[in-house]
Specification:
Two copies of one chain form a homodimer.
Chain A (H helix, E strand, L loop, with lengths): L11 H8 L3 H8 L7 H13 L6 H8 L5 E6 L5 H15 L4 E6 L4 H13 L4 E4 L7 H8 L3 E4 L9 E4 L1 H15 L4 E5 L5 H16 L9 E3 L4 H12 L7 E4 L4 H12 L8 E5 L13 E4 L2 H16 L9 E4 L2 E3 L13
Parallel strand pairs in A: 1-2, 1-3, 3-4, 4-5, 5-11, 6-7, 6-8, 8-9, 9-10
Antiparallel strand pairs in A: 10-12
Helix pairs in contact in A: 1-2, 2-3, 5-12, 6-7, 8-9, 10-11
The first copy, chain A, binds a DNA duplex (30 and 30 nucleotides) through helix 2 and helix 4.
Chain lengths: ~350, ~350
DNA sequence: GGTAGCAATGTAAAGCTTTACATTCACGAG
DNA sequence: CTCGTGAATGTAAAGCTTTACATTGCTACC
């Protein structure tokens, strides 16, 4: 037998018994089903309210075999606003539909990701928003292809709509901005090309270089998993490159922080010794002097789009395009970029 | 009837049928119950594995009336690492026990908080970690008192263990540090005293002032909800106070960012014109020149403690103390504090 | 007036697992 | 040989809701 402890919560059977009607009628009344006499329905609703009735989500989900009670939010990291701010806003938007968001952090570990996906399926989630890990397993992909899924930030080649920042163009703009100031030795610190957003940004970079008449092949580049520590090391290496780059472009989550740290530690003055463009969150940059030239994307915009897409996927909306849905980021010029300094060896 | 769509997932009945045993035996074998012949148990487990069986969490929860399948994580904001980092780490730790964490953002709105608590109860969560909203409703408190609860960051007077940063002492230290440098006009920007952590910090501040022979009553103070915008305005007002404070102490989440912004905008040089101590996240401070004197607490330490306490509450551990469990923060001296400048009017 | 048809309500099954209680079987003791 | 004991397994109920289908009772029309 199930729970022995017969807890206080009232159920439909209690309401039905007390009111002398059947559970079916109670259920229909509470779900605003048409076929119940309005006066009776009202009485039932009032009584349910007075008894503080809350329907058991588990039972409802079990009965319906799938409800919107739960959706998953599966992301590799959460220590950067690109994830934490989007997660928060999604949770807020989804809760308005009475949907709970289950937050799951994979740590970018494909094994953990797979296990967590399995568990989410076991919990009969209605669907999920996922930012896949770098080396996502085929098995995970298969699970995903059987669920209503929305991709976020990163694509992994499944048939699903996705929400992404439109990075290609803005990265090109960033490069052209630097080139326009006279920089020829531009370094790039970004995320790996295995990540779809890493690939997109890299395309944007290359296009910018080519348009500026520079050779992307000779560009000092580090493509790293976006952790702060990686970024610090990568940026230090880039700054020490023989060509002594006069400009540094950084994209991707926690990379910005680590890079800023490294630049700071290098003793180079900005923008005299080094022009710096970072992709990321405005909150960090208030402390910087001079203010940073940044690439910014609206996290709430991404979240709204993600929540909307998920809702449409759950509704099996036939008009929904499976491809990427792009949110445009913005290049904000500020004091951290300028003409190449004269103080170079 | 329930779901018509008879989806693929195999259940215990399928396994039982195929193996010619009863569902009870299957269930027992899978749950490593003793009373099943080892050889048979092994066969059942192997078959379950081969069929990719995953138990339905909803049904299990329904049957057990309460499991560890779901716990809630109810917080007012998530845009600061004090919440986002702790949330992420808790999610990670809990998932190791196969527990899903449902993230819920109240926006510090008591009404929303109540509604979300109701929904969580309806989902038969096993327990929750909560950082209560400022004006938490009596009804919410009542719901909480019937659940395994752990408080985080903020207390709300319910009988439950809580995890808090031990702020009183460190705030005293901060004030004494400034006073020791010769500051007598110290301003404070913090969170409201209605918040338990706001109250704690304020006590620490007062104690520090008194020990330094200064009058807390004459201290310029702004106690505000921790949003960046509030902080910017509050800091500007403090800096414009007739006494022209020579030192500013800022505590609390997003307040640090907004305050830094305001200080920056004020044109005051640090630490010559103004000594600055901020409470918060190291990630922001890498960009600052000079590096900031900060008060830092280990988010992963808080998360570990919170997850551990929740686990113990769920186990109804009788040795568990209901009071606060403190994690000690650290005052890190750096370049943003120094003797009061001479350049004051 | 009889019946078709509709509206309102009831009955019961399904969704999936766990587990108390019942049953079976084998073996040892009397 | 019988019966008790205990281990292994089966049966069925409980957990709570939703909903297909059955039933009831009425209106309205021919």
């Amino acid at each position: 037998m199930g729970g022995r402890t017969r807890r206080s919560p009232v159920g439909v059977v209690d309401l039905a018994r007390d009111l002398g009607v059947s559970t079916a009628t109670v259920s229909r009344a509470l779900n605003n089903s048409a076929s119940v006499r309005p006066e009776l329905a009202e009485r039932i609703r009032a009584y349910a309210e007075s008894r503080g009735y809350v329907p058991n989500r588990l039972a409802r989900g079990l009965s319906a075999s799938t409800t919107r009670a739960f959706v998953g939010f599966v992301i590799p990291y959460v220590d950067t606003p690109a994830y934490s701010a989007v997660a928060a806003e999604c949770a807020r938007l989804l809760s308005r539909d009475g949907t709970h968001m289950i937050l799951t952090i994979t740590g970018n570990d494909p094994e953990r990701e797979l296990q967590q996906l399995r568990e989410l399926v076991a919990s009969r989630i209605a669907g999920l928003i996922i930012s896949p890990s770098t080396g996502i397993l085929a098995e995970s992909r298969q699970i995903l292809s059987g669920l209503p899924v929305v991709e976020l930030h990163r694509a992994c080649g499944i048939r699903a709509p996705g929400v992404f920042s439109d990075d290609e163009q803005v990265m090109t703009d960033g490069v052209l901005h630097l080139a326009g100031l006279g920089h020829t030795d531009i370094a790039y610190l970004g995320t790996p090309r295995e990540l779809s957003n890493g690939a997109t940004r890299w395309r944007g970079i290359c296009r910018g270089m080519e348009r500026a008449g520079l050779d992307p092949g000779r560009m000092p580049v580090r493509l790293l998993e976006p952790t702060r520590e990686n970024a610090r090391i990568g940026a230090e290496e880039l700054l020490a490159t023989p060509g002594r780059p006069s400009a540094l472009l950084v994209s991707g989550g926690a990379l910005s922080v680590g890079a800023a740290e490294a630049v700071h530690g290098s003793g180079r003055r900005i923008p005299d010794d080094l022009s710096l463009v970072v992709y990321g969150d405005p909150a960090w940059f208030v402390l910087s002097d001079p203010p940073l030239t940044t690439i910014q994307v609206s996290y709430s915009g991404l979240a709204r789009k993600a929540a909307e897409l998920l809702s449409r996927v759950l509704d099996a909306d036939p008009d929904l395009s499976q491809g990427p849905h792009l949110v445009a980021p913005e290049l904000r010029l500020a004091g951290s970029t300028g003409p190449p300094g004269t103080a170079r060896p």
